[in-house]
Design brief:
The protein has eleven helices and seven strands. With 294 residues, the protein is an alpha/beta fold. 31% of the residues are buried.
Length: 294
């Protein structure tokens, strides 16, 4: 199925009203109002970075790109993405790894600058939806869900910017209408992905969303995440697991940290040397021993 473009999205919203859903879908382009961002990062370098990404043929856009987890995975498939990231340290890590990087806040960007990108990835900040902290995102999650289902991506229902950043995903989708979308967050944000699934389905996408465990895919960590996958071209299902905790169905067992690290003797020696240098700097005389390495 082909995603509906903005003019048809309005018609879809009218149909939803006839079916008793909550209101119409608005469409809007351009950047959202400036809020809580570092304007010094929005310079000519931003424009130059966009042009650089376009010259290098990147057609995948990664919002809230961080140090480059998605980016590295894509290189395994011979693909290149453009990552938008606000944190300067994460950007330094990305650049050192050779990933295309635009150092700015997603809220300061104009989706129309990226209309050549056909894949969209987004991992919005998770702190306010985590089980730790003040859970500010959970306090407004019902409001966020209504905004998503109605396509009101410019609303700002909280003074904590991290809580409404998931709405930026929709702001980009309604301009780019990418061929595929991949979203990731902590499990507490799953209700948001459920609302996005309903909105995307109403706009012609095939969608799967749910909770996956990274250990089931060969990662040496039992980290659960809420994931949404959408495609404009074909059906999508839950990613097929490559590993199993007990090795059921002939799958390899979960990868342990020891498996991933392999021979740790050099790593342990580095840790000992680092600890010794730290102790000497602090004026301490005791050197911590690690295994059989002094």
């Amino acid at each position: 199925r082909t995603p509906r473009r903005p003019a048809l999205t309005i018609a879809a919203g009218c149909r939803h009203m006839q079916q008793g859903r909550r209101g119409t879908i608005e469409t809007r382009t351009g950047p959202v109002p400036h809020v809580q961002t570092n304007t010094t990062m929005v310079t000519l370098f931003h424009t130059e970075d966009v042009a650089h990404a376009n010259r290098h043929g990147s057609n995948i856009l990664d919002l809230f790109a961080g140090p480059g987890g998605w980016s590295h995975a894509l290189t395994e498939f011979g693909l290149t993405e453009t990552g938008i990231e606000y944190d300067s340290r994460a950007c330094s890590t990305r650049r050192a790894a050779g990933h295309l990087t635009i150092e700015t806040s997603v809220t300061d960007t104009n989706p129309n600058e990226y209309n050549a990108h056909r894949g969209l990835i987004a991992s919005p900040p998770c702190q306010t939806f985590s089980t730790a902290g003040n859970r500010a995102g959970h306090k407004i999650i019902d409001t966020l869900r209504i905004n998503i289902e109605l396509g009101h991506f410019g609303d700002r229902p909280s003074t904590d910017q991290r809580s409404w950043l998931p709405l930026e995903v929709g702001r980009y989708v309604e301009v780019l209408w990418p061929e595929w979308i991949a979203l990731e967050q902590v499990p507490g944000a799953l209700p948001l992905w459920e609302s996005y699934a309903a909105w995307l389905d109403g706009n012609g996408y095939n969608v799967w969303y749910g909770i996956i465990n990274s250990a089931d895919y060969g990662v040496p960590q039992t980290r659960k995440r809420a994931v949404l996958i959408a495609s404009a071209n074909h059906a999508v299902t839950k990613p097929v697991a490559t590993h199993d905790r007990t090795g059921a169905n002939g799958l390899p067992v979960w990868v342990t940290l020891a498996d991933a690290l392999g021979d740790t003797s050099r790593l342990m020696q580095w840790a000992v040397n680092t600890g010794r240098a730290w102790n000497q700097q602090r004026g301490g005389a005791q050197v911590v021993q690690c295994g059989t390495n002094p």
